[in-house]
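Q: Hi! First time doing this. I have a protein sequence and I read that you can turn it into a structure. Is that right? Here it is:
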Amino acid sequence: MFRMAISALALFGALTIAAPSLAKDQVQDRVIDLSDIRTVAGVMMQAGYKADIKKSDSGREYILSGVNGSGFQVQFYGCTNGTGCDSLELYSWYKKQPHFSLALANEWNRDNRFLKVAIDSDGDLAEYIYISAIGKTTYANFIDYIEWYAAMDASLGKFLNEKAAPAKTEPAAAAPK
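A: Yes, that's right. Below is the predicted 3D structure, encoded as structure tokens:
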């Protein structure tokens, strides 16, 4: 009887120790719906990110957040009153610089599969990752998108800094005669 009591206590102790990892796995594997702006904001806050819901000048809702000391937006598409969205994007931009060009954007896009960049009509450089909101995804998968965005944003910043240095030291092109 004493052995059974000790065995039962050992088993209870092992289950108690395992319980926190089970709870974490359940949080990581829970299914979430990215088609609702408020759900996405709540998931981001649970993961420790800022997630302020804002409205654009045109009245569209978006989430303002940040990584690496810089802000980014989560923009939603195909929504009705902030729900039923069919996609979203993580988006930010860099103010126009002399070295921003289509060749620079193409160089980045050629070597980087997920975070894409484009030069807009004002010469600013936009960075973005699109995510489908059709169906469901897991909490862990969505947070991985944000972490991937943060890592790629840091890589893009380094890439742009490296490209800016040579542009500043190259002699100006001579004007045609």
